[in-house]
Amino acid sequence: MPYLDRRGRTCGFLDIEEKERSGKFLRRYLLLDKAAGLLEYYMDNPLNLPDGTAPVCQINLSYIQQVFDARKQRPKIEFCFAILANSRHYFMQANDENDMDGWVDSINNASKITVPKKNIQRVTKQDEDMERTPCPGGYRAEIVGGMVVKTPIEMSDSDSDAENGKSRVSPSTRKKLALGLKPVKTGFCVKQGAVVKNWKRRYFVLDHEGLSYYKSNTDTDPIKMISLLDILHVKSYSGDLPRDNLFEVITTNRTFLVQADSPEEMEAWIKAITDTVNSFRKECPIQRKGSIPESRRRTRHHSPDSRQTLPRHLRGTQV
Question: Region entry Disordered: which residue ranges (predicted)?
Answer without folding.
Answer: 287-319
